[in-house]
C-alpha cells in the first residue's frame, strides 16, 4: 500500500513537471513569432514609406489623419493605408479599436457627427426658350403687297402656339397679303402677343373666298390673346361694296363696275373677329375698309379695346366699327370710330315697314323721314344679345350711325342685354346718337343702361328708343317685343338736325324707368332736313331736370300691368 502511494505521488509530480515545461516552451515560441512579425512589418512600412510620405495627406488633407485609426503616438508602426491592414482569414487577426483609456493620456478622437439626411439635388433653372418671337418673315412671308403670305402666317402661329407668352411679329414697312385664316386654340399656350407693326391686306382673289365667308382674320378659343402695334389691317372692302343708286341718273360707270363686282361673293367677311376667348386686348392698331364689320367679339369675356382707330369711306355699306355679341366685361375707351357717312342727301318718303292703327299713324309719317334707309356706314359700336357689363368711354364716333344696343329680337328670338355704360363720348355727323333698337316679335329685356356726358354735333336724332326697328322696306306687324327698362340719359348736349329725342315703344311692353337729366339739345338748321319735336309713344319715366327742348311727351310714372316683370323672368 505504501509503495503504491509513493509511486502514485511520483507519477503526479512527473506529469506536473512535463506540463510546466510545455507551457514555458509555448510561451517562448509565441513571443518569438510576435517579435519576428513586428520586425518584418516595421521593415515593410519603412521601405514603402520612402519617397511617398504624402499619401496620407492626399487622402485626408494636410495635418489630418483617419479618425478611425489609432493615434500615431499610440501605434506608430500601424499602417495608415487601408490596403495594408491585415485581413481576416489570411493568418493575421483583424485589428480592433481598443476602448478609450482613462488617465493614460491616449484617447481616440470622437466619431464625426452623423451626416444630415440626403436632400434631392437642386433642379437646374428652367431653360428659357431661345426664341419666343416668331417673325412671319422668318417663315417665308414676302411682304411685297402681292405675294400670298397666308401660309407663312399660319406656320408662324403654329410655332408661337406652343410657347407661353410668345410673340408673333408682323414687321413694319411691309405689306402682307393674307387670305382667310384662323389663329385658333384651345390647345395654344396662354398670353400670346400678336405684334402688328406692318400692314395686312385682304386677299382679293375670288378663289380664296369661295361662296363667301363670315370672317377674314379670326382668333378663336384663346386665353390672354393680345393684338397691339402701330400697324394696319386693310380689308379692301371696295372689292365687295356696290356704289350703285337706283335713283342715280348716271349709271353707266356703275354698271361697268358691278360687272367686276360679280366675281366677289355676296357674303362679306368681318375683318377681325374674336370668338370664345378670354382676357382679350386690342390696342394701337388701325382697321380700315372692312367689307362689312371691322372688329367683332363673340362669346368673349374680359375684353379691353383702347387707342384703336377704325375708318371706312362715306359710302361703305353696313360697316360696323365694333360689334359685341354674347360677351361680358368689355371695356372700350380712347378710340376713334368713323364708319361711313350717315347723312342723307335728300329727304325721301320711304316707309320703315311697321304699321299700327290709331295714333301710331302719326309715328309712321314722321319715321318715314327720320329713318329713311341709309346704306352708307353703320354703328360705331353695336351691342347685341347676351352682352353685360359693357363700359364705353372717351370715344370719338362719326361719321356713322352712333352707338346702338340692338337690333334685338329678330326672327322672334329672345334677347338680353344689361349693365351698359356709355359716357364721355363725342359724336359728329352721325345718323343717331345713343340708340336702343328692337325688332317686333322678340322677347327678353334690356335693362340697366346709362348714357352720360354725350356731346353731339350735327347729329340727326341724338336720343332714340325704337321697338319697331326694321331695316327693310316692309316688316310684319307683331305684338310681342323685347322690353326696355331702366335707361338713364345724363348730360346729353349739343346740336341736332332732325329731332332731339324719339321714344317709340311697344303697346304690349312699354318702355319703363326712363330718366332724363341735364338734356340740352339745340336745333341746327340744315337745308335738306326738316325739324321735328320730340316724340314719345308708350314711354314712361321721369324728368329729373327740365330739358331743352322740353320733352313733355314722356309719361311720368310706371306703365300699368305686369308686362315688364314677366320679361324680367326671361333673362
Strand content: 25-35%
For the largest beta-sheet, the strand count, sense and barrel status come to: 21 strands, parallel
CATH class of the domain at 379-561: Mainly Beta
Estimate the mean pLDDT confidence. Answer: 78
What is the radius of gyration?
A: 48 Å
Terminal CA distance: 139 Å
Q: How many DSSP helices?
A: 7
Name of the CATH homologous superfamily of the domain at 379-561: Single-stranded right-handed beta-helix, Pectin lyase-like
What is the name of the CATH topology of the domain at 379-561? Pectate Lyase C-like
- Which class best fits the helix and strand makeup? alpha/beta
- The CATH architecture of the domain at 379-561 comes to 3 Solenoid
Instruction: Report the strand count.
Output: 32
Helical fraction equals: 10-25%
Cα shape: elongated
Give start-end ranges of low-pLDDT stretches: 23-109, 124-130, 243-261, 342-376
Biased composition (Pro residues): 109-125
Biased composition (Low complexity): 71-83
Pfam family, one: Glyco_hydro_28
Protein name: Polygalacturonase
Amino acid at each position: 500500500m505504501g509503495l503504491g502511494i509513493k509511486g502514485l505521488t511520483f507519477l503526479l509530480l512527473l506529469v506536473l513537471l512535463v506540463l510546466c515545461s510545455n507551457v514555458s516552451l509555448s510561451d517562448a515560441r509565441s513571443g518569438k513569432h510576435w517579435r519576428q512579425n513586428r520586425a518584418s512589418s516595421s521593415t515593410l512600412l519603412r521601405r514603402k514609406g520612402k519617397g511617398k510620405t504624402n499619401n496620407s495627406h492626399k487622402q485626408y488633407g494636410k495635418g489630418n489623419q483617419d479618425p478611425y485609426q489609432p493615434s500615431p503616438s499610440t501605434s506608430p508602426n500601424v499602417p495608415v493605408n487601408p490596403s495594408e491592414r491585415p485581413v481576416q482569414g489570411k493568418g493575421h487577426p483583424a485589428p480592433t479599436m481598443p476602448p478609450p483609456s482613462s488617465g493614460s493620456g491616449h484617447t481616440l478622437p470622437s466619431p464625426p457627427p452623423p451626416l444630415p439626411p440626403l436632400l434631392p439635388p437642386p433642379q437646374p433653372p428652367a431653360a428659357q426658350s431661345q426664341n419666343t418671337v416668331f417673325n412671319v418673315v422668318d417663315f417665308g412671308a414676302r411682304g411685297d403687297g402681292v405675294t400670298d403670305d397666308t401660309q407663312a402666317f399660319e406656320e408662324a402661329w403654329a410655332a408661337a402656339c406652343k410657347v407661353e407668352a410668345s410673340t408673333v411679329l408682323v414687321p413694319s414697312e411691309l405689306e402682307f397679303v393674307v387670305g382667310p385664316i384662323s389663329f385658333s386654340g384651345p390647345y395654344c399656350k396662354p398670353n400670346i402677343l400678336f405684334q402688328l407693326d406692318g400692314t395686312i391686306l385682304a386677299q382679293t382673289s375670288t378663289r380664296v373666298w369661295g361662296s363667301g365667308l363670315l370672317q377674314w382674320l379670326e382668333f378663336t378659343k384663346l386665353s390672354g390673346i393680345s393684338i397691339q402695334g402701330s400697324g394696319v389691317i386693310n380689308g379692301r372692302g371696295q372689292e365687295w361694296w356696290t356704289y350703285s343708286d337706283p335713283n342715280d341718273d348716271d349709271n353707266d360707270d356703275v354698271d361697268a363696275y358691278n360687272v367686276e363686282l360679280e366675281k366677289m361673293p355676296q357674303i362679306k367677311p368681318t375683318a377681325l373677329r374674336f370668338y370664345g376667348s378670354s382676357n382679350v386686348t386690342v390696342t394701337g392698331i388701325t382697321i380700315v375698309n372692312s367689307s362689312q364689320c371691322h372688329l367683332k367679339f363673340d362669346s368673349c369675356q374680359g375684353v379691353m379695346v383702347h387707342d384703336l382707330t377704325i375708318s371706312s369711306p362715306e359710302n361703305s355699306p353696313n360697316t360696323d366699327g365694333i360689334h359685341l355679341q354674347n360677351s361680358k366685361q368689355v371695356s372700350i375707351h380712347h378710340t376713334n370710330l368713323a364708319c361711313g357717312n350717315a347723312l342723307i342727301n335728300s329727304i325721301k318718303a320711304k316707309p320703315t315697314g311697321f304699321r299700327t292703327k290709331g295714333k301710331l299713324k302719326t309715328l309712321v309719317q314722321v319715321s318715314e323721314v327720320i329713318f329713311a334707309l341709309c346704306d352708307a356706314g353703320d354703328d360705331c359700336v353695336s351691342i347685341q344679345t347676351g352682352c353685360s357689363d359693357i363700359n364705353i368711354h372717351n370715344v370719338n364716333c362719326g361719321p356713322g350711325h352712333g352707338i346702338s344696343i340692338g337690333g334685338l329680337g329678330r326672327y322672334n328670338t329672345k334677347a338680353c342685354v344689361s349693365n351698359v355704360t356709355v359716357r364721355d363720348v363725342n359724336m359728329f355727323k352721325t345718323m343717331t346718337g345713343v340708340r336702343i333698337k328692337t325688332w317686333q316679335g322678340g322677347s327678353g329685356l334690356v335693362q340697366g343702361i346709362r348714357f352720360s356726358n354725350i356731346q353731339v354735333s350735327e347729329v340727326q336724332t341724338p336720343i332714340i328708343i325704337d321697338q319697331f326697328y326694321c331695316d327693310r322696306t316692309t316688316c310684319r306687324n307683331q305684338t310681342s317685343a323685347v322690353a326696355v327698362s331702366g335707361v338713364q340719359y345724363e348730360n346729353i348736349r349739343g346740336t341736332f338736325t332732325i329731332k332731339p329725342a324719339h321714344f317709340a315703344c311697344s303697346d304690349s311692353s312699354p318702355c319703363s324707368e326712363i330718366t332724363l337729366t341735364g338734356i340740352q339739345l339745340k336745333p341746327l338748321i340744315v337745308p335738306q332736313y326738316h325739324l321735328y319735336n320730340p316724340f314719345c309713344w308708350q314711354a314712361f319715366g321721369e324728368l329729373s331736370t327740365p330739358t331743352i327742348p322740353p320733352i313733355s311727351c314722356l309719361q311720368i310714372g310706371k306703365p300699368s300691368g305686369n308686362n315688364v316683370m314677366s320679361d324680367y323672368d326671361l333673362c
